[in-house]
Write a structure and sequence with these properties.
Layout lengths: L5 H4 L5 E3 L4 H13 L4 E4 L16 E4 L6 E4 L4 E5 L4 H8 L4 E3 L21 H4 L6 E7 L5 E5 L4 H7 L8 E11 L4 E8 L4 H18 L3 E3 L2 E5 L4 E10 L11 H5 L4 E2 L2 E3 L1 H9 L7 E10 L2 H16 L8 E9 L1 H9 L16 E10 L5 H21 L3 E2 L19 H14 L4 H4 L13
Parallel strand pairs: 1-3, 2-3
Antiparallel strand pairs: 4-5, 5-9, 6-9, 7-8, 7-9, 10-13, 10-14, 10-15, 11-13, 12-13, 12-17, 16-18, 16-19, 17-18
Helix pairs in contact: 3-8
The structure holds flavin-adenine dinucleotide (FAD).
Pfam family, one: FAD_binding_4
Keywords: FAD, Flavoprotein, Oxidoreductase
Family: Belongs to the oxygen-dependent FAD-linked oxidoreductase family.
Length: 449
């Protein structure tokens, strides 16, 4: 995937605060609240939403120095500082033959642990949020709270999807799972001539592979390079076991004609490092997302239409389009329920259907081209949401971690969950510090007083 982080980088905070301990965060939150001072909370800064993790005329609190990883083998969790890059977590865990349920790219951060979080292990274990066993969090006023199944369980539930609306998480306790030390994974690159058949493999992954073998993993995506007017797909594919080749169920990925494969036995850390290499730091980025019930024809049609739309902007310098399509299997949803529930509201839909997270991302070089591309991109994705409705496949979820800045991600959890989130926010943050003073990112739907 090609991504940029310019939305975070281009803002100009009055100062950057780099707490080194939970106590520093606690003092800062107390002080900022008392003085009505605006601030932003930055994990590793990979949200594409402008201002999600940075701020003009305020303080950017970067958690980068909270980067410890302490493994507790006896109780099967790792305590991770909230500014730690995911690759560092894998590298700390790999030598102990354990892994956490976290994202797939080295430099990305734990913002996903208050959002959703799709991992190599998600087909078996669910989202990242479902595998947090404790949030060490500084709430409004500066109090440090441990939110887990038995201590502040309401806050625990709210943090599982509630983004930066409830406090500053300083450390996550993430469940760890035994691994064989190495797994089999890499990226497979398919030429344009394979893409029609690739769509069938992607659908098969959503409804068969990911469902019937929980050790499978793939991140289906297509890429469009404007300057070359070229479409290819480079797809991360992995099997979470120390096998020498993909098992039979995943053979469609390798049987399809491809131009390159980096599949091999390797650690999670090594795989996260390779995936990160496609990164395009410094580019302008816009992303949008919606969710559908898995549907082979819809998947094909939406990509075809996006490909046509992308071509219209091929002359924009550095233009690159990315279309991702990630499954949420029924088991993933059930894992959320079994592990205590989360705020996303997924358990209310038909339980037997795989969902597809339909992702659209564009990047390009110059901020001046925003006015040309962003509104048109929004209009296109809105038209695809209408298209999904017309095909009867639209699901309400707007996944917060992949959402556009003006997409109603938290409202998409449903009225009951939103009301519950508001009640919990009112209880822990009566002065609305995290609504008023932390303006960036996906906020609770307006309004409560
Ligand atoms: C290259 C790339 C690869 C990605 N890969 C994956 C993937 O494999 N799986 C997946 O699920 N998602 C993935 N994502 C999306 C990712 O989940 C989100 O961008 C995520 O929010 C990034 O977290 P961060 O800490 O890097 O970002 P940030 O921009 O620092 O944070 C995101 C939001 O969370 C809030 N936040 C962060 N930390 C805290 C905290 N400690 N306390 C309170 N609020 C906090 C911030 O205020 C901000 O609003 C990817 C994104 C990129 C750009």
């Amino acid at each position: 995937m090609t991504f940029g982080v310019a939305s975070t980088a281009v803002l100009d905070p009055n100062c950057v605060f780099l707490p080194g301990t939970t106590a520093h965060v606690s003092k800062a939150v107390a002080l900022l609240g008392k003085n009505d001072c605006k601030f932003a909370i930055k994990g590793a800064g990979h949200s594409a939403i402008p201002g999600a993790a940075n701020i003009n005329d305020g303080i950017m609190m970067s958690l980068a120095r909270l980067n410890s990883t302490d493994i507790n083998m006896e109780n099967s969790y790792v305590r991770v500082g909230a500014g730690t890059q995911l690759g560092k977590v894998y590298e700390a865990l790999d030598p102990h033959n354990v892994a956490a349920v976290i994202g797939r790219f080295y430099k990305v951060g734990l913002g996903m642990a208050v959002g959703a979080g799709i991992s190599f292990l998600s087909n078996r274990e669910g989202f990242t949020i479902d595998n947090v066993v404790n949030y060490e969090v500084v709430i409004a006023g500066g109090k440090v709270v441990n939110a887990n199944a038995t201590s502040h369980p309401d806050l625990f539930w709210a943090l599982k999807g509630g983004n930066n609306n409830f406090g500053v998480v300083t450390h996550y306790h993430l469940s760890i799972f035994e691994t064989p030390g190495v797994i089999y994974g890499g990226q497979i690159t398919y030429p344009a001539s394979s893409l029609d058949q690739l769509a069938d493999v992607i659908y098969d992954y959503h409804v068969h592979q990911a469902v019937d073998d929980v050790l499978t993993h793939a991140l289906p995506q297509y890429g469009y390079n404007g300057s070359m007017n070229e479409t290819i797909a480079t797809i991360p594919v992995a099997y979470n076991d120390a096998v020498d080749e993909l098992p039979e169920i995943m053979q469609p990925w390798v049987k399809l004609p491809h131009t390159k494969s980096t599949l091999k036995k390797r650690t999670y850390g090594d795989l996260a490092t390779e995936l990160n290499e496609g990164f395009a730091d410094g580019l302008v980025q816009e992303q949008r997302v919606f969710t559908v019930y898995a549907d082979a024809q819809f998947y094909k049609d939406v990509w075809f239409k996006y490909r046509q739309w992308l071509e219209k902007y091929r002359d924009v310098p550095g233009f690159y389009g990315n279309h991702g399509n990630m499954p949420i299997t029924p088991r993933q949803v059930q894992q959320g329920v079994a592990k205590g529930g989360n705020a996303l509201g997924l358990e209310k839909g038909p339980q037997e259907k795989t969902l597809g997270i339909i992702y659209f991302g564009v990047t390009f070089d110059n901020l001046e081209d925003r006015a040309k591309v962003f509104p048109a991109h929004k209009e296109f994705v809105e038209s695809m949401i209408e298209f999904a409705k017309s095909r009867n496949v639209l699901h309400p979820l707007i996944m917060v971690t992949f959402s556009g800045y003006d997409q109603p991600a938290i409202a998409s959890y449903g009225a009951t969950n939103v009301a519950k989130l508001r009640r919990i926010a009112r209880k822990y943050d009566p002065n609305r510090v995290f609504q008023r003073l932390v303006p960036g990112g996906q906020k609770l739907p307006c309004c409560w007083s």
